[in-house]
Amino acid sequence: MTRWTPDEPINQHICQRVRERRLDLGISLKTLAGVLDVSWQQMQKYDRGKSIISATKLHTLAHELGVPVAWFYEGL
Questions:
Q1: All residues at 6 or more sequence positions from 74 whose CB lies less than 8 Å from its CB, including other chains
Q2: Which residue among 33, 43, 59, 65 is buried most deeply as judged by most CB within 10 Å?
Q3: Where would I find the HTH cro/C1-type domain in this sequence (predicted)?
Q4: Entry pTM
Q5: Domain span at 43
Q6: Domain for residue 68, yes or no?
Q7: Which of 13, 23, 28 is nearest to 58 (CA)?
């Protein structure tokens, strides 16, 4: 079984895309943390690519950020 880590290029790419979209829309880490029901510290880990975003949370982020889930994978 493959064990994914936060340093994997795919995770780094997705986290970067989340951050880009969040900043483009002017949404704070605190606001997204509330949407995902995580602490702002955990959201900061996602934002910096230090933690892996689950599929469920990625789906929620896509809805909140107004993009399809596939958008996070564009440019990979």
A1: 17
A2: 43
A3: 18-72
A4: 0.88
A5: 18-73
A6: yes
A7: 13
Rounded to an integer, what is the distance from CA 10 to the centroid of its chain? 11
Domains identified in the chain, total number: 1
Render each residue's pLDDT in the chain as its tens digit; 76 residues. 567 677 788 999 999 999 999 999 999 999 999 999 999 999 999 999 999 999 999 999 999 999 999 999 999 8
CA distances from 16 to 2, 5, 22, 45 (A): 23, 15, 10, 11
Whether the CB-CB separation of 52 and 13 falls below 8 Å is answered with: no
In this structure, what CATH number is given to the domain that contains residue 58? 1.10.260.40
Q: Is residue 30, in this structure, part of any structural domain at all? A: yes
User: 65 lies in a domain?
Assistant: yes
Query: Largest Cα–Cα distance of the chain, in whole Å?
Result: 39
| CA angle in degrees (0–180, nearest 5) for 50-10-6 | 25
Position 5 in a domain: no
